[in-house]
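#struct-queue
[09:14] JT: dropping the first one here, sequence first, then the structure tokens:
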Amino acid sequence: MDELLNYLRDFGYSDTEIAKILSDYKFNTVKPETLLKLASAMNDFLLNIVKEKELVRHIVLLKPPFYTYNVSTIEKRINNLKRIGFKERDIFNLLVVEPHIFTFSEEALDERIKFLISQGYRKSKIVGMTRNNLSLLANSNERIAKMISDIMLLGFTKKETVKMTERFPRLFRIGKEKVEEKFNYIISLGFNKKQTIKIYRINPCLFGYTIESIDNKIRYFMSKGFSKTQVLKMIYMNPNMLNFDEKTLNDKIQNFLDLGFTNDDFIKIASFHSYVFSYSIERIKERLLDLQNLGFSFLEAKKILVNFSTLFGLSFDNIKEKIKYLESINLKKAILVNPKILMQSVSLTYAIYEFFKNRNIEIDINNFQKLIMGRQKFEDTYKIKIDDLLKQFPYNEEINKLTY
């Protein structure tokens, strides 16, 4: 025993740490001389992977039974993890953070993964989930099922729960009470239960934020000129905007200011389309240039984007087709009066325009709003269904006749 104790002291353990290691019940069945050989071999093996004695001691103190295993056993389990899809760096992280997983047999680990797959998780995602929640595979099947059930009790479907935990596997570590607290906090801001479910479904990472940090982010947006109502609307539209830190948000806002937009412009843009916080300055410049290439001045392009900020996120090929069609019927200026005319499909705009033309009603800049009066109002006023109108005046048959 003395030889073993001296070896462990020489490796850097304190007497208190040695006592903790040897107090594990698994050491009761191992002779000191055998334990010395196992510990020496395991230290050499682990040192070859983690490179530092301090980390080896850390691993063993987290899981003392490591010294009761043959190196070949741990090697097999490492190779099994690699077979599943884990990389060298993953093995390192698992050893340092969750060495318990290496006490599972290959069969037990495979069974755990099969259980996750049976719950709806994709095998291709399980490795990534474990990277973000290193204790995931160390949980029992019963505990995983209980965690899924707890989240579902808030109103999420099982499919939603699986997708959320695939994206944010640390959700499993937060605990039922904290998850409920975070869920009820979003409701307290003024959202109903259905809206709250949508917010967390889109951005499950919010479960990992403190209530104080979300409060601070709301105050940040209000300090930039947004009303609380606008901030809540933006959060509902794009919950991922809460993932950005204040420096990044400041940079995003400054991008718009540097391009000639005013702060009021930005508030109007983001209030209607909060996804702008995800766009790079290159994307903003590109949209301005796209519009200028179609004949709009810089100021006109800016006005269009301020009043129809969804344009930042749409395919411009589709927008270009709409603009070219409006130009072909002398209504390009209508875009400056009401850019939201671009929201309507070109096939519907064409059908309605041809409908009026067929009735000898001229549509110009003074009455173009008739083209976008709304489905129900149009049908009630003109006693014709939009679906029938689209069949009567099919745009696709005419598209090749237009000269762009």
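[09:21] JT: and here's the second one, same format:
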Amino acid sequence: MKPWGHIDFILDRTSEIEWSTINTVSFEPRSIETHSHIKAIKESINSTFIEFNYKNFINGSDLEKRKIKIKEEFSISPKKEIQNSISDYNKKISEILEASEKSIIFDITSAPIEFTLTFIKRVISSDEIENLLLSYTCTSLYQEKASVHECDPPTAVPGFSILDETKRSNLKIDNYIGFGFTPANISSHLQEYTSSMTEIIIPFPSTPQSYRRNWKAAELLTRGLSERPYFHRSHPYDIFGLYEYLNKKVSKSKNINIMIPIGPKPHAVAMALTHLSNPEKSEVWYPKPTKINPSTSKKIMINSNKKSEILGYAIKLNGKPTL
């Protein structure tokens, strides 16, 4: 069972669970939508707010100003400010989990990719946390401009790489690149690491803006490849669908499988879960952003029931992963 859908659908079917929420306050207005929605349903729910320091970004001052405006507008004072380093990620995650209840709703909407994946891995392996529900607030309008203007070359996300270095040197590499809202230039990665196969995962369906941006980026990428890559369309919000697809291919592969999520956040989670199921033959790499476009997502998506489109994914129930 891999339940996902509108968060109300998941909450109705887990009504016996006493949830607490962990929310990231960022420069995006949608970053606190999950909190507002759940608070309207369950007033007594315990909520923890965290924020990330954007000062080391090229346009960090602008991002910080937007974040402060949102905190003031919604009268939110996050308990923890987290620095953008894996050591601080792990330190703060330990503090959060120690203070958490047994059941957590973690809103991944605006949390950085590396923090999101590290948090999920820690919770799945935790004996104290019995239930983990991820939430994600969809946007109805993306600009055609890239969400990330500049980024570092892709490197392995700490905790999501193969520990045995001899395997990497003795085996060929298959690349899975999740395109989407960050058309980063990863040609240098593909040129440095000999690849027997490259597959590009395209979010579908998508908005016209995203469609044009994705295929333009894919065209630029394919120019530098000796062989044409495969293309696979995957729903932008279906974590479990992409996980099942990747897990089936990776588990049968005799090569090292490097997955690079530069698309929708749910695709990044699917890749992380694939690695956790295949830790000896897969890695998750990520091109860490250094300059973010703060105005990429414009509006929160409203569904046919006139509710904010907030999706929920039950990753762990009753102490066991739902994979």
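[09:30] RK: nice, looked through the second one.
[09:31] RK: The chain has a mean pLDDT of 84.
[09:31] JT: good to know. Residues 88 and 312 are 27 Å apart (CA to CA).
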